[in-house]
Amino acid sequence: MTDHVPLPATSAVRVPRPVYADLFGPTTGDRVRLADTDLLVEIEEDRCGGPGRSGDEAVFGGGKVIRESMGQARTTRAEGAPDTVITGAVVVDHWGIVKADIGIRDGRITAVGKAGNPDTMDGVHPDLVIGPETEIIAGNGKIVTAGAIDTHIHFISPTVVEQALTSGITTLVGGGTGPAEGTKATTVTPGPWHLARMFAALESHPVNIGLLGKGNTVSADAMHSQLRGGALGFKIHEDWGATPAVIDACLRVCEETGAQLAIHTDTLNEAGFVGDTLAAIAGRTIHAYHTEGAGGDGGEGVADEPGLV
């Protein structure tokens, strides 16, 4: 028998950045344009691989890595394997911008780091061990970030949910009952019956919902009834009458219960001017969508307030 002759050593293969980005997504030092804006983000760290660590990226598909005894370990869910792993996504969050694999269990993010099989790959996060019960979502070339919150939704049609999701909005706060006149003008879901119907209609939509009851009343009983029906807070709108008495009465209920109040004030100045509204608010917390200035005072009342343009 002849002696075994080892194969000659080969030099490492260098992959050009554009090719690497096509295969695995951008990496450390790459800049990514945000949609059709002129805003750029730079990836600060690649936890999946990247310069000096390439070759162990966890990717799924024909001829790729996440397979039994390769990128997939034997770890069961009971032993800590995630339900789902999002591979190679660019994570944009307040603490930084990194490329990483994301682990999910019970519908919640459990880890952001390097996923794979620690028996065959280096640097695998202990909470990102891919097992036979793990599903894979390819995040390569995509951005993962916190969902936005829209606090002024007219629930006129179910299509508002689809439109919100396509814009990255995952929490919708507002009101309405469908294509009704009150809904088209104001973000209000009045009364427990309408609240119950709206919650039932929105149950199947994959977004967080907060509905505002009608705050245009001096009846504390009516407001408490809406809170018991599930209202997140209240909306006062001038089309229902945004008088100083209404503002004060609603804020009193909000102070008692911890509910929130949004307001579209009396822009026609039928019941007063900016000073009258501020006197009714009396330093209490409120969110103002629209404020006086379109009516009788010509805008001077708003312009006189410090910090407002």
UniProtKB/TrEMBL annotation:
Modified residues (N6-carboxylysine): 235
Binding site for substrate: 237
Protein name (database record): urease
E.C. number: 3.5.1.5
Main location: cytoplasm
Keywords: Cytoplasm, Hydrolase, Metal-binding, Nickel
GO MF, one annotated term: nickel cation binding
Pathway: Nitrogen metabolism; urea degradation; CO(2) and NH(3) from urea (urease route): step 1/1
Post-translational modification (record): Carbamylation allows a single lysine to coordinate two nickel ions.
Domain Urease residue range list: 147-309
Organism annotation: Streptomyces solincola
Compartment(s) where it occurs, according to its Swiss-Prot or TrEMBL record: Cytoplasm
Domain of life assignment: Bacteria
GO biological process, one term: urea catabolic process
InterPro entries with a match to the protein in the record: Amidohydro-rel, Metal-dep_hydrolase_composite, Metal_Hydrolase, Urease_alpha_N_dom, Urease_alpha_subunit, Urease_asu_c, Urease_Ni-bd
Cofactor annotation: Ni cation
GO cellular component entries: cytoplasm
Enzyme class: hydrolase
